[in-house]
Amino acid sequence: MLNRRTLITSSLAAFAVAGTSCSAPRGTDGGDPRSMLLADGYEPDSLNPLLGYARSGAAKFYDGLLAFDGNGQLHPALAKEQPSPTDGARTWTVRLRRDVRFHDGSPFRARDVVATYRAAVDPAYAATISSGLSMLEDVEAVDEHTVRFRLSIPYAAWPARMVMGILPESALAEAVPQDESPINTQPVGTGPYRLAEWRRGERMVWRANENYWGGTPRISEITVVFATDDNTRAQRVQAGEFDGTVLPPLLAERVGNGSYRTVHHDTADYRAITLPADQPVTGDPAVRMALNLAANRSEMVDSLLGGHGEPAYTPIPESMGRFHEPEAKLEFDQGRARRILDEAGWRTGSDGIRAKEGTRASFTVMYFADDTLRKKFAQAFASDARKVGVRVELAGVDRAEAAERIGTDAIVLGGGSPLDPDLQMYSGLHSSMIGTGTYRNPAKYRNERVDSALDAGRSTVEPAERARHYKAAQRAYVADPGLVYLAFIQHSYVVRTGVWEGYEPVVEPHTHGTTWGPWWNVEDWTPKK
């Protein structure tokens, strides 16, 4: 995949773009296959990896030490080989590639890795990703092409923290908050594409890095148009204007025909309802179990996702292979849910809503007002809860209001990363995360068996033993659930057919779009002959 390729020297096709209008459709003749026009419903706020850009990899402007491949494995990128742990996974040594240059022409060295990771945890840089690197004590350059990470705890999941894009040391010479950094809009990395243009609210143009260490991309120029409305993107695809876009699954199915193919990617991207432990209703373990049994997950997947997803009971999806515990399920059984509530003293009133010692079985579930899918999941959950005598009131809120209320009100969560089960479970369920961040164990869930298994999983390097710990954590969780995990959603795309070769499916994180999707490895695509 990463062999050098012959440099394409032909001139690039030009797109006549004004605002969000674009060039004429590619047409049946295929146009210039060395250029591509995509549409995305999301525009990044920043292109700075220290502010969270492409934290799960697939950054076109940057490379990490490691990269995630279509088979769900981490493989060397800027690292020359797989990193080696010592001292019980407290120390990780990484040998680096020698044939890499940044977009500005400067050579990639160990000091760049040191500068990037030190800035990530130095409060002076105000990096938003710092919480995920709290175990990093120090990183040092052993020599020009070797770095060594020293951690405060044994941490087998450290390779999953090595997909972060590496910046040149020169970009971090001044210790200033990163929201002031030029990198936010003028990225300098080692990745397969450079940023050629960015018109906020309109478009972004990527141009192939001719000196890319993995070989010059054969797709020389990619233009990404930002169009937030799903229906608008679908209509413009149907008109032949775009070479691909991301769409909701049912809409993607309708658009994907003729010159376009619809693809659905498995993900670790879950939707779940938090059940705050401090709330008088959701704090009752009987209510939490009953709500889990009352949720008709299969119906939600079919009706809300058109079947493009799978029911979720824990944070670990089947797509995570050996770490998934198939026995960790909470079967749909509203009759049993009612019996559990009866036995716990929640009696049904004349209006059908239960109460216990003067407390009505009623609570609020928030969802982001601009997220239609989360609203639909909230509505479906509320309907199922009502069938067992629990009233759920819904509130569409903005993100600032959600952050203020998340400790007392429930919320529809979305998130997930397939890179490692530690990333998928620890911050959401371990009791040590309570109070350390808005979305870190927001339900204030406490379970000693889950804590113990997660601690063992993150400190164990041997893969089979790690898998046993994470399976134990899932079994312990479903015996005493603290949230209602509802579904893992597939991400859906339409992509023009007959022009390029190189598509490979991939398991995606919560964050997705045109840097993921069919184009996650677009630097390896070739025009069809």
Mean of residue pLDDT values? 92
| Biggest sheet layout | 7 strands, mixed
Strand content: 15-25%
Our measurement of the CA-to-CA distance between the termini, rounded to an integer number of angstroms, reads 19 Å
Shape: globular
The count of helical stretches stands at 11
Number of strands: 24
Calculate Rg over CA atoms.
Answer: 24 Å
Poorly predicted sequence stretches spanning 5 or more consecutive residues: 1-25
Which class do the helix and strand fractions yield? alpha+beta
Q: Can you characterise this structure?
A:
The protein is an alpha+beta fold and 529 residues long. 22% of the residues lie in helices and 22% in strands. The strands form 6 sheets. A 7-stranded mixed β-sheet has the order 8-9-10-1-11-22-12. Strands 14-21-13-20-18-19 form a 6-stranded mixed β-sheet. Strands 4-5-7-6 form a 4-stranded antiparallel β-sheet, with helices on one face. The N terminus is likely disordered.
SSE blueprint and pairings:
Layout: E1 35-40, E2 66-68, E3 74-76, E4 84-86, E5 91-95, H1 110-121, E6 136-143, E7 146-151, E8 193-199, E9 203-208, E10 221-226, H2 230-238, E11 244-247, H3 249-255, E12 260-265, E13 270-274, H4 285-294, H5 297-305, E14 309-311, H6 334-343, E15 347-348, E16 354-356, E17 359-360, E18 362-368, H7 372-386, E19 391-397, H8 399-405, E20 410-415, H9 421-429, H10 448-459, H11 463-479, E21 483-489, E22 491-496, E23 500-501, E24 526-527
